[in-house]
Amino acid sequence: MKLRETYIGKILLTIKSLATGLRVTLREFFTRKITEHYPENRKTLHIAERHRAMLCMPHDEEGNNKCIACGLCSMACPNGTISIVTKSVTDEETGKSKKVLVEYNYDLGACMFCQLCVNACPKGAIEFSNSFENAVFDRSKLIIKLNK
Ligand code: SF4
Ligand code: SF4
User: Fold this and answer.
1) Most buried of 21, 40, 108, 117 (most Cβ within 10 A)?
2) Residue 118 contacts residue 77 (beta carbons within 8 Å)
3) Is 54 near ligand 1, meaning CB less than 6 Å away?
4) Which atom from ligand 2 is nearest to the alpha carbon of 72?
5) How far apart, in whole angstroms, are the C-alpha atoms of residue 143 and residue 81?
């Protein structure tokens, strides 16, 4: 009869297995912890600049944006996340009719963060921000008007 099949052998195997488990536990106990204690660490949390959390439309100090209402971003979007309302006005300088942006609506709940819209924009009018705390209880609140 082999030792491991005896009563004493089984006790020794159990102790060995227990010691193996405890060795792992002890090793992890002294290993530096990398778990993020969110939201307690909200102030010190590092989010990478390139993280795509939500689309935004930067505005200058006067509240103007670079959008020319061309609609290329909306056309590039694979799932209709962007909807644009435009109107035609007469350009004061040229006297010609031109489209201007009235409303730029972005559905954060539908966005796949693929960035195709940003790449399609010829004016650099939209970009991704890394502001990720966007949880809401009502999906309709995820439809955001990006232009002021
Ligand atoms: S990131 Fe992709 S899914 Fe989101 S709005 Fe842009 S094109 Fe559409
Ligand atoms: S955000 Fe860019 S691509 Fe989209 S309508 Fe405005 S200028 Fe055109």
Assistant:
1) 117
2) no
3) no
4) 3
5) 9
Q: Does domain 54-145 have CATH number 3.30.70.3270?
A: yes
Pair 108, 144: CB distance under 8 Å? yes
pTM given for the model: 0.77
Which sequence spans correspond to the domains of the chain?
A: 54-145
Does the C-beta of 116 come closer than 6 Å to ligand 1? yes
CB 69 within 8 A of CB 100: yes
Query: How many A from CA of 140 to the centre of ligand 2?
Result: 23
Q: What is the sign, positive or negative, of the torsion defined by CA atoms of 111, 116, 122, 128?
A: positive
Q: How many CA atoms lie within 13 A of 9 on its CB side?
A: 6
The reply to whether ligand 2 has any atom less than 6 angstroms from the CB of 120 is yes
Question: Are 146 and 56 in contact, with CB atoms under 8 Å apart?
Answer: yes
Nearest partner of 98 among 67, 56, 143, 63, judged by Cα: 67
Element (H, E) at 27: helix 7-30
| Tokens representing residue 69 in the block | 């209402």
